[in-house]
Design goal:
- The complex is a heterotrimer of chains A (about 300), B (about 450) and C (about 400).
- Chain A contains eleven helices and two strands, in the order ααααββααααααα.
- By secondary structure, chain A is mainly α.
- Chain A has one domain.
- In chain A, helix 2 crosses helix 8, helix 2 crosses helix 9 and helix 3 crosses helix 8.
- The longest helix of chain A has about 30 residues.
- With about 450 residues, chain B is of the alpha/beta class.
- Chain B folds into two domains: about 200 residues, Response regulator (Rossmann fold, 3-Layer(aba) Sandwich), CATH 3.40.50; about 130 residues, Rossmann fold (3-Layer(aba) Sandwich).
- Chain B is built from 14 helices and 13 strands.
- A five-stranded parallel beta sheet of chain B has the order 2-1-3-4-5. In chain B, strands 7-6-8-9 form a four-stranded parallel beta sheet, sandwiched between helices. In chain B, strands 10, 11, 12 and 13 form a four-stranded antiparallel beta sheet that branches.
- In chain B, helix 2 crosses helix 13, helix 9 runs parallel beside helix 10 and helix 13 packs across helix 14.
- With about 400 residues, chain C is mainly α.
- Chain C contains 15 helices and four strands.
- Chain C folds into two domains: about 250 residues, ABC transporter involved in vitamin B12 uptake, BtuC (Orthogonal Bundle), CATH 1.10.3470; about 60 residues.
- The chains are: A mainly alpha (about 300), B alpha/beta (about 450), C mainly alpha (about 400).
- Chains B and C meet through helix 1, strand 2, helix 3, helix 4 and helix 7 of B and helix 2, helix 12, helix 13, helix 14 and helix 15 of C.
């Protein structure tokens, strides 16, 4: 029994990594309708920027652990700026084209960010620090062990999810963003600057992506390819939970981690990825828009 | 003109235009800024001797590496190291007056692309040979092609046993093969951890499969048993789950045949999360400063591994200082790491073999020289462990030294263990102008060409 | 997308077929030897392979609107089936190439049909991710040796068939003895690939203009309306997947035969995504577009090499080095940018792909030409009245601007 609980606990730890990145994916899908393949690479790039700032500020020895937090927030700002710039310059022209074109554009961005990161920072991995309150010994409850870092990631992702959820659903700006995603023409008719909302959506999700990257880098190590596999798992998690649902991203991520670990423990680690994806496909058969997703009715 | 006819014309125009463009741009990508020679060589294919890729002023080499679109592009610095060394030799006038060019083909670590890249190098760029091709499945896709045409396939940058067993005239192994590595680790375990239970963390590809095989062969007949095996896919860098399962299986010694990221994840999980001070024995891939940095110096304390040559962390070794100077002058920037070092190692060996071959350079004569390398004291070789090859033994890295992490740094903890089948060899007959060529090897000083 | 699909001119087609037929020998002719050589024949063979594969993908994603990011998985299955059959024979018998490839195609087609069933309920990004899941999970399945369920080891032995992590090495393909004087090995391979490629292109072309093709297009554009018109959605969706599987299987089988090697790394996630990129770049829902997509897949390496070789050095302040690419090694490392930036620019400016571009130029060229002529005439007539004003003429009057040569339009 304790092995079962431990398996679930470790699965939750793995899943929290997927969950936090899935949040950024769901956010951008909800606010712009685009599936952003470059999300992981943008997050990775922002994390590299944070890393170079941490190295830079490390020479100053600031109080209150500002060595970490200052680059953290600066990187979020830079990421938001990059996201907005990408939307205005690159995505704007393909807004009116079929959706697959914007997907291809994001694929191009994926390669571009990856290349620039390798050129600027090298292909070798770098250790990335975690916030100080995530340090320390692991938490134990009897034979069950969970690393403090993983719990930290989990808590942060829930926190971010709550903030975003409240923002999108209970503020005027959030409402405007959702409206812009659903029907741009109607938005413009009632005076909502739809294009600006899209830019805001990209900026926000780039910032969330940056936070996600900085949270998971201590676990999966900062390198130009750190998001290669993780992004796809995050996508799977987002789809599992429902691309329209922010809580779904968390649920999907955690579930994916648990299933993967269960398969690894009880069947064999050579088949953990396969099993996880089989389960996802099965779930999608029963609920085609994900566990917590809503059925979207399209007009004829 | 009806629209469709016009469209057909446009289509034809695009196709022809594209063809012409391609032929103008060619596939010719010179990776080295060698002053002077850029003309392709005269081609004499069917009549021996085969001097493809050799001209009066230039020798062209090619290689296939993942440069983009794949996490394995982290290994690209090996190719840059090779190129830097070639540039260093070319700056001194080259080998018998021939400058060295290295064309790096990008195969994205995809075997289907490797076939295209290597064929292009051989048939379009007309290279003399392939040096240090990277990747198990990528090279598996092309090694027969190279063998059938007797094209030098030098020092393949992976540890598959297949490259050296059975021996092929044109092909030489690079890294020590994983089976030998496994046996080497097994020897240490049998000596130091007798009676213990061993758990394995393996990458789910040839590295893991061969490593496991070597370990099993080495542990056969001893009182050490393997009680648990966990694998991971190379795309995943988080191995905390596997480590957890290994602990639950009651493992007393952890052996890792893994890449730095996954190995570091395992160490961190074991030491920090699970509070588990299990002894860890790891493949030589992890014997780098990077691994210690990723795993955390305190966590990595006491890990056992091995090396087959002097490593980049030995910064007070004059050999490393020489290579650092070469990299600073001819490299692509940044600090010298084990990747570039390995590239320079195989490049140096190639240059030495070209010098021994003499001015009448052809594929056959080069391969003859390469398989009779007799006690070449390479720059990063251990003292007493020079490179030796023979017609039945095409391995180049057969001298291993155990290392241990002491005070956050790797340190040698044993004498050199040699896997050389024999210590006898006949020194080659050196050509007339051998002494006038740029010096290579441990005793050669750095030559600063202005 | 409601434009009528145009008919190609017959003479153009015949010319194309003749070129395709004699291509492997062209390089021996004086004019063509400048840019053709046996390596180009190899590349043309690869082009043929990719053409078959991408036709299947375009049928599924372009014509039927089902986004499949996992097409590479079907190709891999086809390749493995053919490789295993050629390697180990069937029930003790040796299997000739054509039988192995055909079997691979049929097997993968059947697999596609089955996979179409779960895909019925999914659409858009959900379908995309589900198909992506296929191609991510496949390598693990191919490398599988045994699983343990509840402590019992179940030996699946998949690895024994598929060669596991190392993949399968096949015998190098050879030309038949009787034709030794006419064709060398490479030319023979070219024909072994091109003949199926031409046949399957004709097949695809026929399909798209048949009832099935129209059903696919209806499926893509308006599912609900199609259903109301009597199109059996389920059947046609599954057929679309089955056809894509058929093409993928044949293409994959020929690939394995051609390269004499297949491994789990050969057709993986990035390749799968690149295939979709190629199809979109060429032009969705267009056979010509698929041809260009196949050209992209076969030549992208060379194109990127040529592009990145164009820029050797950009002079700039040394203080900026590291922030702005300046040296040649910088540009070498930025290879991916020479791939992604032209890609993005192309998609932005030519959303319909190459085929869409050709269509635009083809249709609008006549009107564009006439518009240009009228503009020139307008300038000419603007010059004339000025001269006439200098010498006042009774004829010039209110109608001064109406130049008889001027035609309207734009």
């Amino acid at each position: 029994m304790s092995q079962f609980i431990q398996t679930v606990a470790t699965g939750l730890s793995m899943g929290s990594v997927y969950a936090v990145i899935a949040l950024a994916i769901v956010l951008i899908y909800r606010s712009t309708g685009v599936v952003n393949f470059a999300q992981g690479e943008m997050a990775m790039f922002s994390t590299f920027i944070a890393w170079s700032m941490i190295v830079y500020f490390g020479a100053w020895s600031l109080p209150l652990n500002l060595n970490y937090w200052l680059p953290f927030f600066l990187a979020m700002l830079v990421a938001a700026f990059i996201g907005a710039a990408v939307e205005r310059v690159i995505l704007r022209p393909v807004e009116e084209a079929p959706i697959i074109n914007s997907v291809i554009v994001t694929l191009g961005l994926f390669t571009l960010f990856n290349t620039v990161a390798i050129w600027r920072y090298g292909g070798i991995a770098k250790p990335f620090p975690s916030p100080s309150f995530f340090h320390g010994s692991a938490l134990r409850a009897g034979p069950i062990v969970i690393s403090r870092l993983n719990i930290g990631v989990f808590c942060m992702s829930v926190l971010i999810m709550l903030i975003l959820y409240l923002f999108l659903n209970y503020t005027k700006l959030g409402l405007a963003m959702r409206a812009a995603a659903e029907n741009r023409m109607a938005c413009r008719m009632v005076g909502i600057p739809a294009s600006r909302m899209l830019t805001l959506g990209w900026a926000l999700s780039a910032a969330v992506g940056a936070v996600a990257g900085m949270l998971v880098a201590p676990i999966i190590f900062l390198s130009a390819s750190m998001m290669f596999a993780t992004l796809i798992f995050a996508f799977a998690a987002a789809v599992l939970g429902g691309l329209q649902s922010l809580p779904g991203a968390i649920v999907g991520g955690l579930l994916l981690g648990i299933i993967q670990n269960m398969a690894g423990t009880y069947i064999g680690s050579e088949i953990d990825i396969t099993s996880a994806f089989v389960v996802i496909v099965l779930v999608l058969l029963v609920r085609p828009t994900g566990l917590l997703g809503r059925r979207v009715v399209r007009k004829v | 003109m009806p629209p469709r006819f016009r469209r057909g014309l446009l289509l034809a125009a695009i196709l022809v235009g594209g063809l012409l463009l391609l032929s103008c741009g060619g596939g010719e990508k010179e990776a080295g800024e060698t002053p002077g020679a850029t003309k392709p060589a005269a081609e004499q294919t069917s009549t021996p001797p085969d001097t493809t890729g050799v001209s009066a002023t230039e020798v062209k080499w090619g290689t296939h590496f993942p440069l983009s679109q794949n996490p394995a592009s982290a290994y690209a610095p090996i190719a840059y190291g090779m190129k830097a060394f070639f540039d260093y030799i070319s700056a001194q006038g080259g080998v018998y007056g021939r400058k060295l060019t290295l064309i790096i083909g990008d195969d994205h670590y995809n075997p289907a692309d490797t076939v295209e890249v290597v064929r292009r190098l051989v048939e379009q760029d007309k290279v003399f040979g392939i040096l240090g091709g990277l990747g198990e499945s990528p090279h598996l896709a092309v090694y027969k092609y190279l063998q059938d045409q007797s094209i030098p396939d030098m020092y393949v940058t992976t540890g598959l046993l297949q490259w050296v067993e059975p021996v092929a005239k044109n092909r030489f192994g690079g890294n020590p093969d994983y089976v030998t590595e496994g046996k080497f680790l097994a020897e240490y375990i049998v000596k130091n951890f007798s009676g213990k239970k061993v758990g394995l963390l393996l990458q789910n590809d040839q590295l893991g499969v061969d490593g496991e095989r070597g370990l099993k062969e080495g542990l056969a007949g001893s009182d050490v048993q393997i009680v648990a095996t966990e694998t991971y896919e190379s795309v995943n860098s988080d191995t905390s789950a596997q480590t957890q399962r290994l602990k639950n299986a009651g493992v007393e010694v952890l052996v890792a045949f893994a890449m730095p990221l996954q190995g570091a994840s395992m160490v961190r999980t074991a030491r920090e999360t699970l509070d588990w001070d299990v002894p860890i024995v790891a493949t030589g891939i992890l014997c780098t400063d990077l691994f210690i940095a990723l795993a955390g110096p305190q966590n990595a304390e006491g890990i056992i591994s091995y090396t087959f040559g002097v490593q980049a962390y030995a910064t007070d070794d004059p050999a490393i200082q020489k290579y650092e100077k070469i990299w600073a002058k001819y490299g692509t920037g940044g600090e010298l790491s084990n990747f570039e070092l390995y590239g320079m190692f195989v490049a140096e060996l190639t240059v030495y073999n070209m010098e021994v071959t003499g001015p009448d350079l052809s594929r056959q004569s080069f391969l003859d020289a390469a398989e009779h390398t007799c006690k070449f004291d390479c720059t990063t070789c251990f003292r007493g462990g020079p490179v030796m090859t023979s017609p039945t033994d095409h391995r180049i890295a057969k001298n291993l030294v155990y290392n241990k992490v002491v005070n956050g740094k790797w340190q040698q903890i044993s004498d050199m263990v040699s896997f050389e089948p024999t210590q006898e060899c006949t020194p080659p007959k050196l050509p007339a102008d051998f002494d006038k060529q740029p010096k290579v090897g441990h005793d050669a000083e750095f030559v600063d060409v202005p | 997308m409601a434009r009528a699909l145009p008919r190609p001119s017959v003479s153009g087609l015949i010319l194309l077929l003749v070129v395709v037929a004699i291509f492997p020998y062209l390089y021996t002719w004086p004019f063509f030897s400048a840019f053709l050589n046996p390596f180009r024949t190899f590349q043309a063979t690869r082009f043929g392979l990719w053409l078959i594969i991408l036709l299947g993908l375009n049928l599924l994603t372009g014509y039927s609107g089902q986004i499949s990011l996992g097409h590479a998985a079907l190709v891999a299955v086809g390749a493995y089936v053919a490789a295993v059959l050629m390697n180990q024979g069937f029930l003790g018998q040796d299997v000739p190439v054509w039988a192995a490839v055909l079997a691979a195609g049929l097997f993968t087609g059947a697999l596609g049909f089955l996979l179409g069933a779960p895909a019925l309920r999914l659409s858009g990004p959900y379908l995309a991710i589900a198909t992506l899941a296929m191609v991510i999970a496949l390598p693990q399945v191919l490398k599988l040796d045994s699983v343990s369920l509840g402590g019992h080891e179940i030996h699946v032995h998949m690895a024994r068939w598929t060669g596991g992590v190392q993949g399968l090495l096949l015998d190098r393909p050879k030309a038949p003895e009787s034709l030794k004087d006419l064709v060398n090995e490479r030319q023979w391979l070219y024909y072994e690939v091109m003949v199926p490629a031409v046949i399957m292109t004709a097949m695809a072309w026929n399909l798209t203009r048949s009832r099935i093709g129209r059903a696919f297009i209806a499926l893509r554009d308006t599912e609900v309306a199609a259903e109301h018109m009597g199109v059996n959605l389920a059947l046609y969706k599954m057929t679309a997947f089955a056809l894509s599987g058929l093409f993928a299987g044949v293409g994959g089988g020929l690939f394995a035969y051609n390269e004499a090697f297949i491994s789990p790394d050969s057709f993986e996630t990035i390749k799968s995504i690149t295939m979709v990129v190629a199809v979109v770049l060429g032009g969705l829902a267009s056979i010509t577009g698929t041809v260009f997509g196949a050209l992209f897949m076969a030549f992208q390496n060379e194109i990127v090499d040529s592009l990145s070789g164009l820029i050797r050095h950009i002079p700039s302040l040394s203080a900026l080095q590291g922030y702005i690419p300046t040296t040649q090694s910088d540009f070498e490392k930025l290879r991916g940018a020479f791939y992604s930036i032209p890609l993005m620019l192309f998609i932005i400016f030519a959303p319909g792909g190459v085929a869409g571009l050709i269509r635009r130029v083809g249709y609008s060229a006549p009107t564009w030409w006439q518009g240009w002529r009228s503009r020139v005439a307008g300038w000419a007539s603007a010059v004339k009245p000025a001269r006439q004003r200098a010498e006042p003429d009774a004829d010039a009057g209110v109608e001064g601007r109406q130049d008889p040569e001027e035609k309207t339009q734009d």
